[in-house]
Amino acid sequence: MRKKAAITKGSGKPRRHVGPEVSKRSRAGSKSRKRHAGSRFVVLTGLSGSGKSQAIRALEDLGYFCVDNLPTTLIPTLADLSRRQGLSRVAIVVDVREKEFLEHFPRVLGKLHAMRGLDPALIYLEASNAALVRRFSETRRPHPLAPTRSAVEGIRDERARLNAIRRLADKIIDTSEMTAHDLRHAFRTFATGFHQKVPLIMTLLSFGYKFGVPLDADLVFDVRFLPNPHFVRELKPYTGRDRQVVRFMRRHKATSDLLSRLTDFLKFVLPQYVSEEKSYLTVAVGCTGGRHRSVMVAEALRKELAAVSGVRVRVVHRDIVKGD
To answer: Rounded to an integer, what distance in angstroms lies between the CA atom of residue 45 and that of residue 208?
Structure first.
């Protein structure tokens, strides 16, 4: 059974518990941050192998402008530029790979907190020695502080060096028993300082089988069994977006039955994809030429699914100009 993120205070010995807990420093500063909202500037640091790469990707998915391994002395410059350029969310990764990090970072962090219009947050990632050794073994990468020694020696050395940085953190996240998915979920939930979820982008893609099945389709529905307006002379010039074609197709019970069943299925499955934090879903609807039936069904589904929570629906008609 997977455990939730363990978050501890920014100083002292970490406590083990289940569920997120924001540090006292973060709670104390929450009101002032609300009063002086500015550019969100997240600094990610911590032990090598603790999951900083997955964390920065999660922030990137949230719309952050992300920079990995930025030289410590350039952090204030980037922060100032982010304010001037109106970047509301920026995240950087800094760690022991950068030679001047340990020496200069405390002073640099002080500069960030002194900047007006900037909302800095230092997030520190760590894990147990056993978890870190296992991860270095799985990736077969040497520890950055122990290229010619064992991973255990490098981990112990890095942990000792980073203790001073750890005490400055607003949040400390123990990733020992977290998968990459758990870590991404944790950041999507609380790393921004408020509960924000990125919507699932669902594309309803109509297509014609005669032009090939879309390669990027996650779900494919074949509607070639529906009555075909192509063979009705006065309807052939129109498309599934035109009222004449829609009225013709809705006169047939098979159309309403299909739409009812597809709507129920998608209303069931979409929240499952949202809970799994899937970013994109392509639902392809195909008929022979991609001009009438698939277009009509895709447009009807867009209206039925527009109110599904956590989902942004868009429609693309790939072959509407090609026809039968």
So the answer is: 50
